[in-house]
Fold each of these.
Amino acid sequence: MYFFDVSMADVVITVKMTNTLSLLFNYCIFTTDLYFVFKYVRSFIAYHGIYDEIDKHFEMKYNQEIRSQVKCSVVVSLLLWFLFSAIDFAAWFIFYDLINVVAYSICYLAFLMRLLTVFELSCHSILICNRLRTILDVLDDHFSLTDDVPSCIKVESSPKVGVRSISVAVLVKSKKTRDTLVAKLSSYYLLLMKQASFLNKYFGARILLYCVYTLSEIISFVNTMDRLLTVSKRGQGKFSKYFYYPLAAIFLRLLSCVTLLVFLVYHCELTSRQCECIIDAIDDLLVNKKISVEEHAFLEELRSLVSTRPIRFHAANFFNLNYTLILSIASVVVTYAILIIQTNPR
């Protein structure tokens, strides 16, 4: 079988092939990034101007929170990237030689480029999520200042179990102002849908390549770790003395790939969850509050939009970026690892 009688030379060949294929794949990803950047550069400039103007009409109050969140995430990620890259470089330098390690060190820069791409989409996802929170704030404020229907079951408010509490943020607004905002919510949500559609066009193919590459890289890491463990137990050559260094380096690279993917999917999933919160808020208004016929029509229209056309991020329409993607990748990796363990006798 393929996994039988693994030698030190096999491990070196595996590592070189993995790094070479990684370089080629990263070059394809980088070329694709450049293509979409140049193709949509003018559209992106107009995109930012339009949505900055729209935020003024709905009093977007989460800008400072978004900046703090993005800055913290970027700083932590760059520090971890530098630390993992330094550990990986040092481990393979001890195990092999300086020339080969330097030759393949461009992989670290390629990973940084992928990291920046993922962060760019994540930042846009955070923006949409907070714009959806703005819609939710308008609905919550309207809920807090509208009279209950006589048949409403009144219980103590508790956000932890999904029972709405009174918002104090916009209590000073007049009823006319609140009614105007409610009437504009459907139009605002349509604009957010167009924003998500634009981002899916801009990032879809790039994220598809990134996910395919991440899956192949994780599988190659699992394969390499298995070979390293096999050789270490036989005590072959220099590796028997420095067993844990390259093994730990590969594990850190695998962990960085998984962390980056989870980070992206987490923020995309948060955006989808905001749509569900908006539907819950509308249901509370329709069932428990005295609202006019006109307001009822506006809310029904918004509910229909959100429920039938929720905001989703996808990879070129192949799959959605949600927790199901992580489970699918995990199942593939676990299946491959089980096959390796069963095929390669210890």
Amino acid sequence: MKKFFLLCFGMILLLLLGVSCGDYQDETYTISALDAAACGVYEVDSLAISLRPAALPDTVVTFADRVAFLTEAGIVFGVDSDSLWSVRFPTDSLYMVFQVVNSGDKVIYTDHNVNFSLSDGDTTISPAEEAIELSTVAACPYIFSRRVYHLGAGSYLICLSSEDPVNFKMVVLNKE
């Protein structure tokens, strides 16, 4: 009786082991073509376009004044999918003007934890999407954050801040 019980127990154990082995098979994950393109731009960081913004003076108050000041200072950039923007914090926060020519979805990637805010006048624009897939993080360690914005043509003010000011890199791509 004891042998029969051990034999049945062994067969059940083998059956359970055989059924559960499917859970441990290799799985492959891929990242989107857009995320792969951003990762490719990050990998060629020797071609990064350097932005060294100046601090905004206290006299600049309105959106129009900020855009005018930043345009004069040369802190303007647009979407160029072949470029990596290397941005240096002069203080704990900085402002840049983002010129959008063609309306549509813009994806902004950064390689550090920075507080990012986008506005068009007095209105702050919330990202349509901020989630980043784990497969993207695993495949491309350069991408720390990913934000998607629905933007029309025009000028936008980007405010970046960080408790630990660092040089960080940013890629802006058109989402197709």
